[in-house]
Amino acid sequence: MSTPIRVTVNGQPVEVPAGSSVAAAVARVAAHSRRSVRGEPRAPLCGMGVCFECRVQVDGVAHVRSCMTPVSEGMQVRTDD
After folding, report:
1. Are 10 and 32 in contact (CB under 8 A)?
2. If you count DSSP H runs as helices and E runs as strands, how many of each does the chain have, helices first?
3. Which of 13, 45, 47, 70 is the most exposed place for a label (fewest CB within 10 A)?
4. What gap in Å lies between CA 26 and CA 69, rounded to an integer?
5. Which of 3.40.50.300, 3.40.50.1820, 3.30.1160.10, 3.10.20.30 is the CATH number of 5-78?
């Protein structure tokens, strides 16, 4: 069993197994990752970094693909919701 990693998503503490993606952490607290320019909710679609629908802000860096980014202890994640 892997050690849980603690991250914060939109100000909420979340624990996910080591090796999880940021998308997995976001899914624990938010229904979607971002909103389109028309305000439609967007979430991971392809799961392999091709569609860019899962973009979030990680530790102040915008447009990070959450499905391709592994979690690390203390990471701060913001969706645009």
Report:
1. no
2. 1, 7
3. 13
4. 12
5. 3.10.20.30
Helix (H) or strand (E) holding 23: helix 22-29
Dig out the tokens for 61 from the structure: 């860096």
Q: Which two tokens stand for residue 10?
A: 């939109």
Predicted confidence (pLDDT) per residue in 55-72, tens digit: 999 999 999 999 999 999
- Three-class SS state of 81: coil
Please tell me the pTM assigned to this model. Answer: 0.88
Dump pLDDT digits (tens) for 28-47. 998 878 888 898 888 888 87
